[in-house]
Write a structure and sequence with these properties.
This protein is an all-alpha fold. The protein has 10 helices and no strands.
């Protein structure tokens, strides 16, 4: 009976966790679809319709659960910090913080019975044998979503770093051809929608904020917070200073693009220099023992055969 109850709780928590993850992903896609519509790009109608049908109901249930279980943890500075991390990960929904907290609780509920079921063959007895697996599963459930969130932020930061030099080159070509910065950004958003989607998304939000009436400096500073990238911060600082001083924007962007490419080249050289050191460990621990085994086992067998023949 107890095992059946655990299975039922596991199934319910698993369904809730799946609904929460789908809610965040669908809300993210819904935001991108609205952004593409605003900028005149095309979006996938089937996925957009699916997000429109499923996101409101699932998000409503999950956020209510997140608000109920996250009393005190989703207030003031803590909520603002979590909200900023979710924005950096690409989740722009107003209730993403509550939904993420609900996912953490659902993950804890999923892993608690799993940890208890895994510990049953170990033969743990007493209250400690019952509570310890539950505590381990609950802690893992609370920490794993944070780890996945940090990984997504790092992936988007790396995508922004890799795509930024190409974006700056396109801005240089557009500005030197006589276009304004806003027109260059609009072309960048359209051209990079498939090649560098993260770069296209960030500059699309920037363009939308400027068109909505925000000052260019404020919109650029908000893009720096969203991307959490040092390269974007340097680009924003250069653009703001260039506008304030009145220098040539095309020339400043060209110099900045050259610096980015030099930095990428130096990073590639550094990784190439580290490669022999990193290869030494698998060579010593894995490949050399196999080679020694292949070489010396036949010799040893031949030696044993010779010694046994001499003994006879």
């Amino acid at each position: 009976m107890a095992q059946l109850l655990l299975v039922v709780l596991l199934a319910l928590a698993g369904l809730t966790l799946a609904a929460g993850a789908a809610t965040l992903l669908l809300s993210d896609h819904g935001f991108n679809a609205r952004l593409n519509t605003r900028l005149g790009a095309t979006a996938a109608p089937s996925a957009q319709g699916l997000a429109g049908r499923l996101t409101p109901q699932a998000l409503h249930l999950l956020t209510r659960w997140g608000e109920a279980t996250g009393k005190g943890a989703l207030e003031d500075d803590r909520r603002a910090a979590l909200r900023l991390r979710l924005i950096q990960a690409g989740f722009y929904s107003d209730r993403a913080a509550e939904a993420f907290f609900g996912i953490r609780v659902a993950a804890a509920l999923v892993l608690m019975p799993i940890a208890l079921l895994v510990s049953l063959p170990l033969g743990l007895e007493g209250s400690l044998g019952f509570l310890a697996p539950l505590m381990v599963g609950a802690n893992l459930g609370f920490f794993v979503p944070n780890i996945l969130l940090d990984r997504r932020i790092a992936e988007r930061r790396e995508a922004m770093r890799l795509g930024l030099p190409d974006a700056v080159d396109l801005l240089v070509v557009s500005i030197e051809a006589g276009a304004t910065l806003s027109a260059g950004i609009q072309r960048l958003v359209r051209e990079f929608a498939e090649l560098h989607p993260v770069v296209s998304e960030q500059f699309g939000i920037l363009l939308t904020e400027i068109q909505a009436g925000a000052s260019r400096a404020d919109a650029l500073n908000r893009m720096t917070k969203r991307s959490a990238s040092e390269e974007v911060g340097s680009l924003v600082t250069m653009l703001i200073q260039s506008e304030a001083v009145g220098t040539s924007l095309g020339g400043a962007l060209r110099v900045f693009s050259d610096e980015l490419r030099k930095a990428r080249y130096l990073e590639a050289e550094r990784k190439a220099a580290e490669l022999p050191v990193k290869l030494a460990f698998p060579l010593v621990l894995l490949i050399f023992p196999c080679l020694l085994t292949v070489i010396f086992i036949p010799v040893g067998l031949q030696l044993l055969s010779t010694l046994s023949g001499m003994a006879n």
